[in-house]
Amino acid sequence: MKYITSCKNSIFKQLAGLDESSKKRRVGGLTILDGAHLINSYYEKIGSPKCLFINELGHKNPEIKRLLNLEDSKTVEVYVLSDSLFRNISPVKTPTGIIALVPIPTLEDITVSKGANFCTLLESIQDPGNLGSILRSAAAAGVCDIYMSDGCADAWSPKTLRAAMGAHFILRIHEKSDLTKIAQKFKGQVIATTLESDKSLYELSLDGPIAFVFGNEGAGLSELMYQAANEKITIPMPGKAESLNVAAAAAICFFERVRQLQQFKFNGHTRLK
Q1: Is the domain defined by 2-104 classed in CATH 3.20.20.70?
Q2: Could you tell me which residues come within 8 angstroms of residue 171 by beta carbon, excluding any fewer than 6 positions away?
Q3: pLDDT tens across 174-225, in order?
Q4: What are the residue boundaries of the structural domains of the chain, listed by start?
């Protein structure tokens, strides 16, 4: 292990730059993962990180110790950061004790189910926490592709990665996508949620190719994107809240499809893709 105690160290400066700058992440094709769970997911789905950083007591943590003892970790450079440096770089108030520097996976690195046709289009989702939560729910519900407009938060920022809890290594994520063009070419239902529709989510059959569309936290979908959807539905809200958080709305839609497909399977119907 090598020790880093100065913020002027070139390796630490690179790490700090990736933590703060989406441009540096994009140009370098690198990002940072915080926490043993996220790093372990990367090991399982993608491969070894470029290098690992632990704090001064990190090697005493059982979960971190297990990661460091993995066969794949034996060729990975490990750096020990002073506690003050580690706190400066950690995206959370209570540092986890381990950070990994990793290559951002390509679409070819991600394996999805053959013939799967379930995707999500995200327009100007600006909060990294919301974006990460949507990705996490999407991965759990069997979504394969995520298409993001130019105005979305950075998919590969440490905050988004932490909120998604490994979903990035299961989903094919397409940033800076032309959502209107994708919606127009999609051979299936392109479904937008709105408060104005008379059709409930629960009235819609979701057993074929599906693309759910979700818009900005405040403004919702643009008129262009709204018109590109061939189905407009609402999520019934019997309570007094005016609207749902976009991540909550997305999770409800995703798992209504899961429920319907499970029901089809239970009743002995052939599932469409």
Answers
A1: no
A2: 110, 112, 135, 138, 139, 143, 144, 145, 146
A3: 999 999 999 999 999 999 999 889 999 999 999 899 999 999 999 999 999 9
A4: 2-104, 110-266
